[in-house]
Amino acid sequence: MKSAYTYLREAMRQKRDTKEWRELLTRWRKSRVVVRTAKPFRLDQARRLGLKAKKGFTIARVRLRRGGHKKTRPRGGRRSKRMTIKKSLKMNYRWIAESRAARKFPNLEVLNSYKLAQDGRNYFFEIILVDPKIPEIRKDKNLKWLGSKKNKRRVFRGLTSAGRKSRGLRNKGNRAIKVRPSVRSGGRKGK
After folding, report:
1. What is the distance in angstroms between the CA of the first residue and the CA of the last residue of the chain?
2. Of 55, 66, 102, 170, which sits 20 to 30 A from 93 (CA to CA)?
3. What are the beta bridge partners of residue 122?
4. Angle at Cα 54 formed by Cα 50 and Cα 58, nearest 5°?
């Protein structure tokens, strides 16, 4: 027997080729970069990643320009070794979107995020944010860990799911020796 969220997921797949979908993307393109929304656009994804219908949860939609991970070549004032443009930003787009949402809402912690859509120019992500100081969150046995000091500003330290993926921490065993406990401690060999 299928759940309601399965039907929601199937409906989203069918929706992507319609005129309404294109109009929606146009509206999102014209809106601000980080927008607080009343409810998630992808309810099935949000619930799977930890969203609960209780006080303290916030959803933010983030628009990101595609491309541009390569750094631009400096105009001058460096020796030739430092003029290279081969160095690239080693964060994935989802992690960048999470950090931008966290900067916009400094009193909230990022729980998780997921990709909403993309067009020729932009990526759109939805970020699930939680206020760890609210009593409803402090009393919840599954969410009270967000209020501890060691989880403060976790998105900027690469502790969210997107950050851990970008740091190469999804692998375990022999393949992960160079990335644990961090890329820097492994002499930057892991990335």
Report:
1. 43
2. 55
3. 65
4. 65
